Amino acid sequence: MANSDTQSALAFQEATKLSYINLLTKPPLYKSYSGLTRVPLPEAAPPRMPALDAILGSATTDVASLDLAGIAILLHYSAGLIRKRELAMAGEVHYRAAASAGALYPTELYLVCGELAGLSAGVYHYSPADNALTELRKGDFRGNLAGAAADESLASTPAIVASTTVFWRSAWKYRTRGYRYCFWDNGTVLSNLLASVNSLGLPARVLAGFVDADVDKLLGVDSEKEASTCLVALGQNSGAQPYVVKALAEIEKGDLCFSDPIPYPESDQLHSESCLISADEVQDWRGHAHGQETRFITDLESGALGDAILDRGSTRRFSRENITLAQLTALLAASSANMTADFEGGLTEPYLIVNAVTGLIPGAYHFSRNVGEAEILKEGEFRDEAGHLCFEQALGADASAVIYFMTDLDKTLERYGNRGYRAAQLEAGVMGGNVYLAAHSLGLGATGMTFFDDAVTAFFSPHAAGKSLMFLVGIGQTATPNRVRPFRSKYGVLKDSLARGATGDRRPVPDWLYSN
Fold first, then answer.
1. What is d(CA 219, CA 239) in angstroms, rounded to the nearest whole number?
2. Average pLDDT, integer, range 218-236
3. 337 near 435, Cβ under 8 Å?
4. 408/61: higher pLDDT
5. Whole-angstrom Cα distance, residue 114 to residue 249?
6. pLDDT tens-digit profile of 14-58?
7. 38-40 and 132-138: which strand pairing?
8. Degrees, nearest 5: CA angle 247-248-249
9. Residue 220 and residue 253 in contact, taking contact as beta carbons nearer than 8 Å
């Protein structure tokens, strides 16, 4: 035999197998701790503020302090378990407060607080499954976050919610691309949190810049399987003041209930290279932020925020019925609501394919967040295009409109470095989450979808040339029954036909079709 070493053939065969995701390796949706003190949270009263007011921050209340009841509302309506359902094929299914790609819920929430009415100062982990806090550290560690975030005001902020992501929960299904989905999911949770904070009349501030290793150590996460992604300061602070960064003892890291996740080097490298390693680096990163102060208002009545969250669920099929121009305008205003953050708002811009909106010509549009107006880029019936761009899904074709959140990554990365990629994905997730909430409060359906990246850019070009799609949400009237329908766009069929062509000659098809 010319070559007795058969390892190359065996390795190639293994590497090129096609298979469905391994259901046996699906990571559990909840993190657990054993033997630590637990603080049951009181039943959370649903926020009654109209959802659009809560999202836009256009109403205030007299509430000025944060207590255990307020913490319970904020955590439950951001990431809590809102209902369960027994399905014949899947068994018991858990539905959470915020939308999650594939219902995988990679986001975990932690609370770092001073003394609050009903809750001692400490570091806590939030357990959605039983609506409780697990005490990880006793005492006031807000100074540690102030040091990590290079922000002295955090030491006097009543409470800070820290979010982390468990990478394997998303990567198990979505592989390398799952890193994006982690930030989308973080964004939808953040959308719920910020709206809930507004409903309580409290200020909130998002910090995407901090020394990663310091926050990870405070929370007791390992930085590899689980890592910190965002801080949200809750309540009125007393301004900059001296603080103490306490020495940290080792604490229980908690059980993620899985081992040996499949590594995805590109994701690992991006996360590593987007970490900040010193307070000076954090301050330099934050120095590029200038803020966005455009205020949107709407006089359209919406349902209560709590009801919108409790009734929320991703639409599986749209009815192709029209929505009104007032409804679309409100959804675009919600998508572009101000978010007080340590990076410049407006990294992400909405583009649209409008299929069925009363009073609006069907076509492709760009929505300016600076002036609050939509500009038509091209007129036409683009249902097939929308279905194809949304990864060959009927939802895109059937939606009354699809909103595409796009970012000029070159500009963002030049300003914020690799950390800017996290910020752009997070902002797009918040914008999409706002659309989810607003749609449900108006009696409409909404759903996020994956997409053909470069084809979307090409379709909206030349206006969108050089921009990258971060996230998209389809909106419309939910069909009955609300079930996925089979779909194949004319463009999917055409591409298959062209792939079988003998000569490879270009046929008269749109240029954007060759971008995916």
1. 24
2. 97
3. no
4. 408
5. 19
6. 889 888 889 899 999 999 999 999 999 999 999 999 999 999 997
7. antiparallel
8. 125
9. yes
What the block records as the tokens of 474 is 């389809």
CA-CA-CA-CA torsion sign (27, 31, 33, 38): negative
Nearest to 52 by CA among 309, 297, 351: 297
For residue 508 the two structure tokens come to 């008269």
Which parts of 392-432 are beta strand (E)?
A: 401-407
Place of tokens 């359209």: 300
How far apart, in whole angstroms, are the C-alpha atoms of residue 382 and residue 36? Answer: 56
Whether the predicted pLDDT of 289 surpasses 70:
no
Q: Is the pLDDT of residue 181 over 60?
A: yes
Q: What is the mean pLDDT of residues 304-316?
A: 95
pLDDT digits (tens, 9 = 90+) for 450-504: 999 999 999 999 999 999 999 999 999 999 999 999 999 999 988 888 778 755 5
Between CA 359 and CA 470 the distance in angstroms is: 28
What residue type is assigned to position 469 of the chain? L
Which of these, 43, 3, 57, lies nearest to 199 by C-alpha position? 57
- CB of 141 within 8 A of CB of 246? yes
Retrieve residue 384's tokens. 């097939």
If you ran DSSP here, which 8-state letter would residue 464 be given? T
User: Residue 507: pLDDT above 90?
Assistant: no
Q: In sequence order, what DSSP letters do the residues of 107-151 get, joined into one string?
A: EEEEEEES-BBTB-SEEEEEETTTTEEEEEEES--HHHHHHHTT-
Phi, psi of 341 (to 5 degrees): -145, 170
pLDDT tier for residue 65 given thresholds of 50, 70 and 90: confident
447 Cβ contact list (under 8 Å, min separation 6): 314, 315, 316, 395, 473, 474
3-state SS, one letter per residue, for 474-511: EEECECCCCCCCCCCCHHHHHHHHHHCCCCCCCCCCCH
Given a contact cutoff of 8 angstroms between Cβ atoms, the answer to whether 432 and 448 are in contact is yes
Residue 190 phi, psi (nearest 5): -65, -35
Q: Measured between alpha carbons, how far is 100 from 392 in angstroms, rounded to an integer?
A: 20
Residue with tokens 């379709």, as numbered in its chain:
459
Closest-CA residue to 437 (of 302, 290, 255, 273): 302
Q: Which two tokens stand for residue 403?
A: 């909103």
Cβ–Cβ < 8 Å for 48, 306: yes
CB 223 within 8 A of CB 211: no
Tokens for 70, please give them.
């307020």
How is the beta sheet containing 445-448 ordered, strand by strand?
373-379, 363-368, 348-354, 401-407, 468-476, 445-448
Which is more confident, 409 or 291? 409
| Tens digit of each residue's pLDDT (9 = 90 or more) over 437-457 | 999 999 999 999 999 999 999
Distinct helix (H) and strand (E) counts, the chain: 17, 17
| CA separation for the pair 108, 358 (Å, rounded) | 40
| Tokens 């069925």 sit on residue | 356
| Residue whose structure tokens are 């929430």 | 109
Question: CA dist 397 to 113, 320, 385, 469, Å?
Answer: 47, 8, 7, 18
